[in-house]
Specification:
Chain lengths: ~475, ~500
């Protein structure tokens, strides 16, 4: 069974998507079926995580079959310890988003749920594929459902949003395709586990740009504002929480292990870009006039922070980065879902000028915004604090200045997040907040509370993730 | 007593079965009463293409070695047989698409007669072994296509398109003929293998002849800058004819281009490689930039076919084992996507009764979910996205270019793909993203016309497009053994 688990994690949602596309059911039942599939998917992930042998840096739960042999391309999927946690975060967040879509009752349900499930399969594929071409196929496949999810269910300016999003992503991924072709043919195989390290800066650049656009890192974040604002809330949530992580995962799995020499040469520049994302994102979040603006710019900042950890080149940095990828996935999905819930209640687009005073008489909403907000600003004892601490400790070894910049950004995080919390929950009651803006419903709680429980659980035991990823020894064993 | 050459009838069976179908269809036009003529004619045409496909498949299986037939005029090998299988598949799907096309009943049998005759010409063309049969095959299918383009005299622009295609196509044919004459004049040989061994490699006249042959063949492949007829002919022709032209003509022209180069001019590879590489770049640039400004979907697809010719020419320019496989593999999903996309356009056209533009495609994806998803897949496939054979095709083309050290062609291909994202995704946007108020609803009279055959045709195209992504290995094996029969 073990060698099938990873494949099941990829194929189950895709098969579910095909069933949803053709099953003669009403939108409501299609939604409940999609929700069921997401829950079963989480169940399979728990099975996989429980059968995984942590402590071994080898690829596990792997499955290998030749796809076409003359270029040595294969279906090769499997998980390393760090992929287990990232996959777990992805299936949980995708499940939450799918179920939220069902609860909200998105129109054109058949297409919506099929696309959400397809996206789940593609995301898991990205995090588990061990063949360059297969990785690329899943990486591109993520774009297909996202394009339609934003273009059909998005806000008023969605056409421009999809265009911007697609132009950025396609440019990045095609540069990566060129790098993949050249790298694979030079190596004589596309199997990532067989790759030797490479010295080519040009190839590295192809990967770096694609991943930096996806993450996004400064200065490749131009698609971010309009896309995150126009997409439906739960799609923005998975876009920033899960899909963006594909870029960071790509750095972790491909760019850093295969090009160690090039990374060493360019480390200063990449760390500077990461720090710039961190500070610039934090400042923009502080100036953002709406709830989603704060969340999306904070995810730019977080991507920068994770970048600092990844390029710190030591175990502390890597472990912290993996932990922070998991943390931020959960935080970001929760925050975007909360933003969506606030927007729905007030019939606004989350502008702070129209909001305020929502804590009064809405205890569940207030508590959840508060808890997730506090966790996201890395208050001590929270799991994000653990992640950021590890990253800063790691990057400190590269130079104290990086750690100082990171610490400044954490102060900024407190500023922008508290400002957002206060603007939504406290202050005078906003003009858009009426009696009809109810407290969170049971269904919404059922989606959010598990996410928050995951965060609280990780806060109690962050070592579950950061202690089981093997740090630098793992990274060094990813390429020959 | 006249000495008769031995004729291997089995080797010619794909062409002959289509020719027989064409002859039968002319009888159908006269003897079958109008009430049943449409059904009888379409099934005869379909049977002709299926028979040709089956014969070609057998031919592929039973031709492990290359044999020259009829005084070296024809070649029996797996390369030609594989091309014939693809051609027959295109023809069969084109018949399915054409069945419900609004056309005058008195022309319907002639329509299929011309379609099968064009198919027969193409099947003959890909087996051509000397310059004479090359020209014969080219003219054979071209003339059938000229008439097909202009067959629907009720359609605005059809006649004009036919005339344009005729004039420009005739220039192409004449150029090819002139080039052939020069080559014959220098070498004194007609058959490809003897031209190769005649040893006049650096003769200026031979080079001019080669250049003119390239130009003639590029006219048929609709590669830029010899593509001027393409948008007009594709737009003006009845849509099922366009579907057939865009897929089958391209298969025949590109396959023969490669065959002529490697079997007749292997010593001039340094010349034609560069010529083809440059034509590929021009096609990629012109096709993609031209498509950006179009509103008519058939014109967009026409420019897209120019750019795809560019991609496949990259494989020809690489001229290595990987390039051969890339070309043959690429043709399979490309033909399917092209047929399928034009079939969907035909469906919308029949629904609305006007030419399909990005504007009146609005809401189509929601009204006809299956055709919408299919069109979506075809567009993503042409863009080279995963889950379609188009992705693997582009990957192979890039791999072949890199393998021969033509990395700059990868850069050009990547940039071209980036540009093409705009108009391919633009079609998806037009189908799905408009607000409900803007949606174009089906014309008065309720649900759109049911068209089982067209849906079946789209389904087959979809199955090939997606299937070729998963079944890469078997297709590459077939392409590999076909390419091995070439002398290069």
């Amino acid at each position: 069974m073990n060698q099938w688990l990873t494949m099941i994690l990829i194929v189950l949602p895709v098969a579910g998507a095909l069933l949803v596309a053709v099953a003669p059911l009403s939108a409501y039942w299609l939604g409940s079926f999609a929700a069921l599939v997401s829950l079963v998917e989480i169940g399979f992930w728990i099975t996989a995580a429980s059968r995984f042998h942590y402590g071994s840096p080898r690829l596990q739960l792997a499955q290998h079959a030749s796809w076409f042999s003359d270029l040595h391309v294969s279906w090769h999927v499997g998980m390393y310890a760090f992929s287990v946690w990232i996959v777990g975060m992805s299936v949980v967040c995708m499940g939450a988003a799918t179920i939220y879509g069902w609860w909200v009752g998105r129109d054109r349900g058949r297409a919506y749920f099929a696309l959400m499930l397809l996206l789940t399969g593609a995301v898991v594929g990205v995090f588990t594929s061990q063949d360059l071409l297969l990785f690329y196929a899943f990486f591109e496949a993520m774009l297909i459902p996202l394009y339609v999810l934003i273009g059909v269910w998005g806000g008023a300016d969605r056409l421009r949003a999809t265009l911007t999003f697609v132009v950025y992503t396609v440019v990045g991924s095609l540069l990566m395709l060129a790098s993949i072709v050249v790298l694979g043919l030079r190596e004589g195989t596309f199997d990532l586990t067989q790759m030797h390290t490479s010295h080519s800066s040009l190839l590295f650049l192809g990967f770096l740009v694609a991943f930096a656009i996806k993450s996004p890192l400064f200065p490749f974040h131009g698609w971010l504002p309009i896309t995150y604002r126009e997409a439906p809330a739960e799609v923005s949530g998975v876009l920033s929480g899960v899909v963006g992580k594909a870029g960071l995962y790509g750095l972790l799995r491909i760019a850093i292990p295969i090009f160690p020499a090039v990374v060493a040469d360019w480390r200063g520049l990449i760390l500077a870009l990461s720090a710039a994302s961190l500070l610039y994102g934090s400042l923009l979040a502080f100036r953002a006039p709406d709830f989603r603006g704060v969340v999306m710019y904070s995810s730019l900042a977080q991507a920068g922070l994770i970048g600092l950890g990844l390029f710190a080149n030591n175990s502390l940095g890597f472990d912290g980065a993996v932990l922070q990828i998991v943390n931020h996935g959960l935080v970001s999905t929760s925050l975007f879902l909360l933003a969506g819930m606030v927007e729905r209640r007030t019939a606004t687009r989350g502008e702070f000028a129209l909001l305020g005073g929502m804590a009064r008489g809405r205890p569940a909403l207030a508590s959840l915004v508060m808890i997730v907000g506090i966790v996201s600003l890395a208050v001590p004892l929270s799991t994000t604090f653990a992640g950021e601490f590890l990253i800063l400790a790691g990057v400190f070894q590269q130079g104290w200045a990086w750690a100082v910049l990171g610490a400044i950004a954490i102060v900024l995080a407190a500023m922008y997040m508290l400002r957002a919390i206060s603007a939504v929950l406290h202050q005078d009651t906003g003009s858009a907040v009426s009696e009809r803006a109810t407290d969170l419903r049971l269904g919404e709680l059922a989606i959010l509370v598990p996410l928050v429980l995951c965060l609280l659980g990780l806060s109690a035991w962050p070592n579950l993730v950061s202690g089981h990823t093997l740090g630098k020894t793992q990274i060094e064993r990813l390429a020959k | 007593m006249i000495h008769k050459p031995h004729v291997d009838w089995f080797a010619l069976s794909p062409s002959l079965s289509l020719l027989a179908a064409a002859g039968l269809l002319l009888m159908v036009a006269v003897f079958v009463p109008p009430a049943t003529r449409r059904a009888v004619a379409a099934s005869t045409g379909f049977a002709g293409f299926v028979a040709a496909g089956v014969f070609a498949a057998f031919l592929d299986a039973r031709s492990p070695h290359v044999t020259l037939l009829v005084h070296d005029a024809m070649i029996r090998d797996r390369f030609g047989a594989l091309a014939q299988v693809i051609l027959a598949g295109c023809g069969a799907i084109a018949v399915l698409i054409a069945y419900r096309e609004r056309m005058r009943d008195e022309h319907v049998a002639e329509y299929y007669a011309l379609l099968t005759a064009a198919g027969a010409g193409m099947a003959f063309f890909v087996q051509a072994g000397n310059l004479m049969t090359l020209f014969l095959g080219l003219e054979w299918f071209s003339i059938a296509l000229y008439v097909l383009t202009a067959i629907d005299i009720d359609l605005i622009g059809s006649l004009e398109a036919g005339l344009k295609y005729l004039v420009v196509g005739a220039v192409g044919s004449a150029t090819l003929l002139f080039g052939s004459a020069l080559v014959y004049g220098i070498t004194g040989q007609l058959s490809f293998d003897k031209i190769a061994t005649a040893g006049h490699t650096h003769d200026a006249m031979l080079v001019v002849g080669l250049a003119m042959i390239i130009v003639g063949l590029m006219f048929k492949s609709s590669a830029a800058p010899f593509h001027m007829w393409t948008p007009d002919a594709y737009q003006g022709a009845p849509t099922p004819v366009t579907a057939f032209m865009s897929s089958a003509t391209k298969v025949a022209a590109l396959v023969v281009t490669y065959r002529v180069f490697v079997s007749a001019f292997p010593h001039d590879v340094h010349l034609w490689r560069w010529a083809i590489a440059i034509i590929a770049v021009v096609s990629l640039a012109w096709g993609n930039i031209g498509a950006l400004v179009q509103r008519n979907v058939k014109r967009i697809l026409a420019y897209s076919s120019v750019s795809h010719a560019g991609f496949m020419l990259i494989a020809i320019a690489a001229a290595n084992a990987l390039g051969e496989r890339a070309l043959l593999y690429y043709l399979i999903p490309y033909s399917a996507m092209s047929l399928g996309a034009f079939a969907v356009v035909a469906a919308r056209e029949r629904e609305l009764g006007v030419p399909v533009t990005l504007q009146n495609l609005a809401g189509f994806g929601w009204e006809r979910p299956f055709l919408g998803v299919a069109m979506w897949t075809f567009m993503l496939g042409m863009l080279g996205f995963p889950l379609t054979g188009g992705f693997i095709g582009k990957f192979y083309v890039f791999a072949a270019a890199y393998d021969h050290g033509l990395s700059w062609l990868i850069v050009v291909g990547v940039i071209a793909t980036m540009i093409s994202a705009y108009y391919y995704l633009g079609i998806i946007r037009a189908m799905y993203f408009r607000d409900a108020a803007e949606l174009q609803l089906a014309p008065a009279g309720g649900s759109p016309p049911r068209d089982l055959f067209l849906t079946l045709g789209v389904f087959c195209s979809l199955a090939v497009t997606v299937g070729s992504f998963f079944a890469v290995q078997p297709l590459i094996d077939v392409a590999h053994s076909a390419a091995n029969s070439l002398p290069f």
